[in-house]
Amino acid sequence: MLDRVEQIEMAGCSTRPVSLLEAMRERTKALHVTAERTGVVAELLRGRGTRQAYALLLRNLLPVYETLEAELVRHQSSLVLSRIVRPELHRSPAIKADLATLDATGLPLLPEAITYVGAIKKAGSGSGHPLLAHAYTRYLGDLSGGQIIKKILARSLALPPEALSFYEFPEIADIRRFKDAYRDVLELAGAAMADPGAVVEEAATAFKLNITLSEALQAAAGLGA
């Protein structure tokens, strides 16, 4: 007969595995808080940004999204990645439109953005499964916190709607339902992988890259301490 310790260990082995989303949320919980409280993102959330800071943010996010979207499309026939390739989420055309409206020419591309782009290219190599983490971090963030930032920017910087296309998703009729459906396909993608651990760690990497870029943008824009 099994003793109590062995019974507990056996029971633990039989429980359902932690879902990909649960694992990513848990792994990035503290990083998520840090991302909201530091750098240019924190300044924008507090209503202390400037048009130049916003334009600089967009300038440096553009190659990040261009690379992410290109890598996702390249893997669109993948069993794991095919369901998360959703053109209605693509942000690079909207970012270009916002930059044109803001007449943001001559803004620098920071080294931190180049590093971020390199990390996404690396995530897209081989199977490309780590791209799930970048899609999770960027797109669900845009659909959630991004909607709050849009309202703050419109008020604090008096930006017209045509300068805030980045946060608009005209092809998505119901953002809440879309987010739920997108989470579902992320879960299906996670279930199709033998070991989602690398994706979970890539989610932490994605948040760290965002934080580093945000801090660099804050300094480049001359905001904060």
TrEMBL record:
InterPro entries: Haem_Oase (IPR002051), Haem_Oase-like (IPR016053), Haem_Oase-like_multi-hlx (IPR016084). CDD domains: HemeO. Keywords: Heme, Iron, Metal-binding. This is Biliverdin-producing heme oxygenase. It comes from Bradyrhizobium denitrificans. The lineage of its organism: Bacteria, Pseudomonadati, Pseudomonadota, Alphaproteobacteria, Hyphomicrobiales.
